[in-house]
Amino acid sequence: MNNLHTKSKMGGSLRAGCGILLFILLFILIGRLLTPYDHLSQNLAEALESPSRSHWLGTDHYGRDIFTRLIYGGQLTWIIAIFATLIAIVIGTLVGLFTAWWGGWFDLIVMRLVDVALAFPRIFIVLLVIGLGGSSIELLIWLLALFSWMETARIVRAEVSTHKNFAYVKAARASGLGTNRILFRHIFPNIAGPVIVSAILLITNIILVESSLSFLGLGVQPPFASWGTILNEGKIDPLGNWWISVPAGVCILVTVAGFNLIGDGLRDLFDPYRLN
Amino acid sequence: MANFQGPILDVHNLCVEYSTGSVNLFSRKRKSAVKNISFQIQTGECFAVFGESGCGKSSIINAILAFVPVTKGLIQFENQNLLHLFSSVPRWIRPQIQPVFQDFHQALNPRRQIGSLFKEIRSIYPDRPDSAELLNRVGLHCDVLHAYPHQLSGGQKQRVGLARALSTNPKMLLLDEPVTSQDLSIAAQILGLLKTLQKERKLTFLLVSHNFSILRLLADQVAIMKDGGFLEINTPGQLIANPQHDYTESILKQSGIR
Amino acid sequence: MLSVFLRRILSLLPTLLIGITLSFIIIHLAPGDPANRFLNPNQTPEMQSSIRERFGLDRSLPVQYGRWLKNVIFHLDFGYSFYSGKSSRAVIAVALKSTAILSFWALVFALIAGISLGILAALKQNRFIDYFCNNLMIFFLSIPGFWLGLMLIGIFSIQLSWLPGAHLQSLYHHQLGPGARFWDLAGHLILPVITLGLPLAATFFKYIRSNMIETLNSDYILAAKARGVNRSKILWKYALKNSLLPIISLLGIVIPALLSGAVIVEVLFALPGVGRTMVTAVYSRDYPVLMAAVTFGFIAVLLCNLLADICYRIVDPRIQHSPGEIS
Predict the structure, then answer these.
(1) How far is CA B55 from the centre of its chain?
(2) What ipTM score was computed for the predicted complex, to two decimals?
(3) Is the pTM for the entire model greater than 0.80?
(4) Chain B residues with CB inside 8 Å of C7's CB?
(5) Hey, are the CB atoms on C326 and B29 less than 8 Å from each other?
(6) Which residue, A229, B129, B219, B221, shows the most beta carbons closer than 10 Å to its own?
(7) Fold assignment, B9-20+29-254
(8) What residues does each domain of chain B span?
(9) What is the fold of A2-34+59-275?
(10) Do C144 and A257 touch (CB under 8 A)?
(11) B145: closest CA among B154, B133, B127?
């Protein structure tokens, strides 16, 4: 009885998360049809207006429509997060697969490097590279990705080390199948679950790191904006001009919460042993 | 190589060690699994290794298939050395030695249909027998091709494993606890099947088990293994009549043979 | 046991060296010239090169690195700030104190909040309080820390004027008596500690809750219940002990995140910590201060990791000192 109850709750968090993300995606993808404004064009005559019928969420210091900027900012936030996560997952999966498969010295050295990378406060290096070298969206994506793949690599490595000793893998090796074929066609489908869960957790992390970098002025540079940049623009008077920062903050919060809900739901779905 | 004479498999002074984790890059702890064992198997023979779990008997199979690095020794298959550089079995020998694993954890890939297994093997060795034919041979209907492993019973999985091993037309099968997980009637069926296949295809078996009653039914030679080494090698009849070691005797007693 | 610690410390050195070297390369290869900061348009190229010479920037990168490393190792000398002329070591040592105070109290806050709510939720599994805590924690896990801080400043400092929203102490701090100084510091710390601690508390909460539920449903607890062992004894003696252990190993993962979070919080609340010093140094291209900050940051993280590891070994004697180290 207890179990049934928990099961339905798990499905609930998965569904709630999907619903939230679908809503946000719709907002950033087709939202621009609802607004007549451009996200970059300034109109100082209408600067810092509070929400009204013509500007649903008011305007910022340069008279740009906040609602429109949220839509475009969301696109940028999502693009950065998705690409960085994809790159990180691909690197992490490849490293995990091959370290576990080859083992030996290669494994020892690579995993020691992973330890090194994990021990460092990521923001230090990002701060150095972007603060000193300047920022671009491509650089941001690569940096975020390069400092996020380690957890995935560890998870994949642990899973592959287990599967490597399963009879089905040994049989495949004995029948002469190539390494790549065994790794990608046989083992990978079996460990895809944990990889997906780690991807979901990674994307929440990357969204938060990106927005805090943009908040520090190190991420997406004006006039372009991610949600973090918009928050930064509203920090001068967080309560007086609440319409600048609050909607952007809510957008980040809701998106990350959506992913977190999905992550929780998926983890329990893929790992039924945890529940009893 | 059809008229090959002499032992099909010749194992000489085999030693296998595992590294058990590592403190750092420079020092490793090693644990010996197989210590200095030698044996020969003639074509068409069934050689059995008896040992309790953890005695290193599965490591012999893993060493022959080059899944674990061999520390010392020689393994020859039809007079060709199996221990080449990079500890990998030469490609042309691979299909000739096939393992059949105990149907315990994940003997078949849970995410793939049975059919894809055979398709894949035929994509590497196009001249090998048809999958439906093979399945019929081991007593399965070809409907199984579209099934996933979790839809099959233990006995069916065991037969699929056997068919998979046969699909490369091997000369030798390595049987790792082939029938422990089934109940007796199914075990008897599989043993019978193994026997007919052996005769029909002139297969050589290397059988590894902790169940003496099963070994006895198939084996021509039995090696008693303890703590990584062989205590004695003899025919099952001789072992029962005249055991050389106390350990052998205690096993026979436990199995209810003496 | 002691040899294990020594070996662990030794094995940290290469890690540290790789990180520092990497940072040095990034810092010195980055575009932009610190010498330009002191120039006005009327100055000549000769003056620029003399500035570069004074800072040692005219040498090749390996020479600069060798010199820097030598001074650090033999004299613990990180050089002088290009900007203020103060010793970088002294600058960072002062900043480190603020960061340590902030991080420590944030960790304490997170542990207390996360663990107590986690236990509460696990005991009331699937009741209202469990759902409430769960959703609250997903909220704290998802909210961008700096925005939370921004809202806290807006409400409690600007709107209500209850708490200070910036700096670690008041301007008149040194004129206060000892008791008043403490309250002054505490007042300044409340908002930053909450901002930094809440997401962390959520991490601990999730961990404790699922661990606790797992333990409470495990066979030996059920067996103890069946034997009629007193409920509170089961809870405090068995379940809690086994659920708290993993927290220690979690600390190793959490501490780098804590320091990253501290950077944001320090900038937001204008606290004189390592993070804020770093951000300022990045913008003024103050290489010596930057390198000192990075080095101390790395050392802090590695030492905290080591400490967590040692605690774990002491508390849980089952852990042997070989296999798990690399994985």
Answers:
(1) 15
(2) 0.83
(3) yes
(4) 23-24
(5) no
(6) A229
(7) Rossmann fold (3.40.50)
(8) 9-20+29-254
(9) MetI-like fold (1.10.3720)
(10) no
(11) B133
